[in-house]
Protein 1
Amino acid sequence: MVELADLKTVGQPNWCPGCGNFPIWHSLKKAIVELNLKTHNVAIFSGIGCSSKMPHWVNTYGFHSIHGRPLPIATGARLANNSLTVVAVGGDGDGYGIGVGHFVHAMRRNLNIAYIVTNNQVYGLTTGQTSPTSDKGYATKSTPTGVIEMPINPIALAIASGATYISRGFSKEMKHLTKLIVDGVRHNGFALVDVLQPCVTFNRKNTYKWFSERVYKLEETNHDTTNKQAAFLKSLEWNDHIPIGLFYKEIRPTYEDELQQIAETPLARQKIEDINIGTLMTEFE
Ligand SMILES: Cc1ncc(C[n+]2csc(CCOP(=O)(O)OP(=O)(O)O)c2C)c(N)n1
């Protein structure tokens, strides 16, 4: 049995007191315990940002990569060893800004990766610039007179791009978030868990209070999680009412499922002497 104590690391998070990353970190660890995953079978990949420090503080395999790149590296890990449970984590700047191309392609491939995006609608680590999900009109350090562009809608983008498990959690709702992560990791395919994660230092608009007054749970409505059109309509709700929970789920073969070379044995466990590279070498002589 895996216990929370097994996931403890030497270092402790250095996020600001009250940061919305703490409940996400706890939820991820609780999910690993609930799924009873062996720590050596889990790998957590991140980009750059406050939230991207997460792999340092969960005692599994981990890779703190470069800005916007957790998904390509997580993809490599899944292809190299598709018996691993692969989780990617990072901020909205990381995933929906610099990494947005990777985000879209990982979803259309339906790789078996659970992707947790800590969406605080601001660049935290670099101290408060506009992010791709900052609300229109919101004034930040880099946009003192207000953001001009429309924000990215990650849920709508995920629906359009072919993700097969699309959800949104809220840092204040830890039990609910843990279940979304558990189900997302269990899901055979690309699972998005976008998390409303108040940045208590740099985002003075989208606060715990602001969200608490607006969020409601999809599972407490008659929302049909198999209906893509209904999910898209729900994804458009923001401002007055903000849905959290599972928007959409679909069963579709993953990229790895369709890759014959790893259908029986993960690449990492294939014997190198069984691979005949002689022909290839001759071709390039
Ligand atoms: C290629 C590159 N561009 C820019 C940066 C600077 N940078 C570091 S973190 C960051 C944004 C962090 O915001 P986010 O991804 O939303 O994560 P948060 O810190 O809010 O968790 C930026 C722009 C970088 N490290 N690398």
Protein 2
Amino acid sequence: MLSRRRLLTLGAAAGATGLLAAAVPQSSVAARSGASAAFTVPLPVPPVLEPALRTATHDIYRMTLKEADARILPGVTTRVRSFDGQFPGPTIRARRGRPVVVQQVNELGTPVAVHLHGGHVPQASDGHPMDLIKPGGSRTYHYPNDQSAATLWYHDHAHMLESENVYRGLSGLYVLTDELEDLLPLPKGRYDVPLLLRDAKLAGDGALAYDVHDIAARGTTMVNGVSRPYLNVAARKYRFRLVNVSNDRVFAFRLSDGSRFTQIASDGGLLPAPVPMDSIGLWPAERAEIVVDFSSYAPGTQLVLENLAPYPGEDAQIMRFDVGGKVPDPSRVPEQLRPLPQPGKPTVERTFEMTTDMAHDRYLINGKEFDMDRVDIRPRLGVDEAWTVSVPAGNYAMPHTFHTHLAQFRVLERNGKPPAPEESGLKDTVPLVPGETVRLHVRFTTYTGRYIYHCHMMGHSALGMMGQMEITA
Ligand SMILES: [Cu+2]
């Protein structure tokens, strides 16, 4: 069940951003949003990239960043910035303990920096906003894959350019698996489907229209790069990897008949135990994995994935599941998924206040805009830290998402209370509406050097809501 706290959070976000405030699962979004366009396009699944080379110890990939034509709307061509000609980018499937090397060749006219979101990677491979690949250049990133199975994603992070680059298409999926996850009887193979969700504003000719501020005008939603797809599903259980690859869009999903599903993972991988839900919030850069059981539906049933928090006048329908016949289903959701250690007792306290100075279009952390020449905090390796992140009430009623590079953290408290079960696993991105405070447990291991933390509403990070840390041994 969606916790009351989480629901209130979503409701507050909806109100705060001018979305419909009535984010109530029982209400009929379909009725409210009126007539809708048909679901005419089958859901594409981003292709899994083949390694250019497999050595005894590494998988080596090569991608080219270049412009490409996408088909977001049926019969309409949209020019995008792409990884390897794909929109979204190709999927990398990686295995814990087996490092991946990716050479990125930049054939775009803009500098880029490729960041593996949620990844535990050495500094030189983190895609720091100043470590740019200039047009015509290339860079090789090393991903050790020394962390638990998780749904990660890669995207551009070039300072002040990331917002437009990502908006124009520079993101893709990175699925990390491990032995522990393999042993669980969860839906696998073709029954494990990624859903990369985002929005955009399309001009009359199909071109992507980008305005860093005009986030409410992005009325075209996409799943895996197309608007309003359908997916033929068998009457059995599926695992869906929901990834919000939007710049600034807050989603809250439900199934059109209000039926329950089960959340099994958050940003950093499997939760300790499954959480039944009837709706789920997903903020920019967050991931949630859910299992949906279609076995109780008659063949021919159509279920719509709806957004409970559309902007006024927006279509709330995201995609449709068309249920087919029953097939054997050996999968199940076990009562225990993956135990998580109790976080250590923090010995360092830090505070991060996220504010906006609208008069000057400045987005600040602790009163400062990002400065690449300034180090804001200096965490030590292996030290348990508590980070208190807040968005002051009344701060232009602007929600934010706090994300740190390099570490998966744990939410210790939200507004002074223990986090909801679905927020109790490994996280790297956490939403806040004005008036909220979260207390996080953060601990850096293995890698030293300069990394960043920032708001993952990309319009905000591009306008300065970012800080720099230097991690030392
Ligand atoms: Cu923000």
Protein 3
Amino acid sequence: MSRLPAFPIEGGCACGALRYRLNAPPIAVYTCHCTDCQKLTASAFSMAMPVFRKDFEVTRGEPATWLRKAASGTVIPQRFCPDCGTRIFTEPPGGPHSVTIRPGTLDDTGWLHPVSAFWVSSAQPWVRFADDVLQYEKQPTDFMPVMKAWKAWVEGG
Ligand SMILES: [Zn+2]
Ligand SMILES: [Zn+2]
């Protein structure tokens, strides 16, 4: 039994100028509590949903780009709506085959279940994590456990 919705699924920015479609299941869903994500979301943390680029398409509008320089020096392009500013997806470094959707922009967010939390060392002090959430002090060096946790959750484990 899969806990995923039927694909394709769609999403878009707050004003509707930018729309996208995802044709196949994501690779994982996690949260990031780094201070950059707090700033970028104007909130406490971000949700991230890496997907295969071949499964993802922008169906309306043209995203604008801001080149974010991470603490490591890596440049991570951020794609957002030029009209309302909603950040829709980012281009992960060294990952030409994937993009990371900001899944709060999905039309239906009810099924989302982050299985891991990154940068818990800078999480806001009131944030609590469920027992089954894989926690990382910073960025995980190995993404495989996150993908495994995601797969287990999808299959109902
Ligand atoms: Zn917009
Ligand atoms: Zn972050």
